[in-house]
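For the sake of transparency, this paper describes our internal protein records without simplification. Because each token names a local backbone shape, the row as a whole describes the fold. One such record is reproduced below, unchanged from the form in which we store it.
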Amino acid sequence: MKAAQISRYSKILAAQINTVAVPSITPTQVLIKTKAAGVDPHLVLAITGKVKLFDHYDFPLTLGNELAGIVIEVGAGVIDFKVGDQVYTMPPLDKMGAFAEYVAVDAAIVAKMPANLSFKEAAAVPLSALTIVQALAILDTRQGGKLFIPGGTGGFGQIAVPYAKSQGLFVTVSGSGSARALAERLGADEFIDYTTQDYTDILTGYDYVIDTRGAGEFSKQIKILKPGGKLLSLNAGPNARFANQSADLATAKKILFSLLGAPFDGIAKWQKKSYDFLYVQPNGQQLAAFTQYLETTNIKPVIDSEYPFDQVNAAIAKIATGHSQGKVILKVDDAE
């Protein structure tokens, strides 16, 4: 089978399409014929080695964090899926593997696809869906609370914004001026054009921020929160609370994460606010619940662009710009 792989960390965002063996499955796994895969910013971090602090990959590494496809083989111990089921999943970030014609994953992290979505649309969902579900749980959001998502019109925002709205939150996003119409389409209550506006001059008294930009924006994002407000980052870095809640983390790494996060925790505490970090985890039950949400609301993800499998590097280059409006999709099976 074909798989898009890297053989080492590199500043050059380039994968090679290699021919590899179709994976065999364990009794708890299913084998999925991939139809489409989502392309996300984490890939840039993985290729360049910027997530080595979390994940030590085995090379060659098959890229890809989310996919939709058809079950073609079921492990002896799997009871929830059968051959022919249309499914989607997010493999563990430390394994990846979605950019391949066939993917073996544990059945516990798989869910049946929403009936209202195509394979390409379904492939746009898993990573963003699990991220927003887990983020809102950590933030312990309350109806009526005000949430700011900087850069909330990209691959994450196209799922996060409507879901956050469904949970009763007032949602503000930022983006370039050309993204205003998309923000309105997603249901955002307020849009900040970062090319002409500074959100710290406009936003105040917010309850929550979900950071997608990193440490460089921390001081600005913490500023707009009211006392007791909560900032959760997907990018800035881990802290003591994240380390202590990670049961399988080595003691040395817990100490390291605590030290790295000390500046964030210190500033947040001084301002009577809080800082958390999320490194999203695969979860089939959460994804199945999200399937019900999508089917009930008939919400469909926004697709920015689609690339054939042999143009995987163009797809990665597109996501690396940070300017996509919606999700970038890799068509693994051209028949889809």
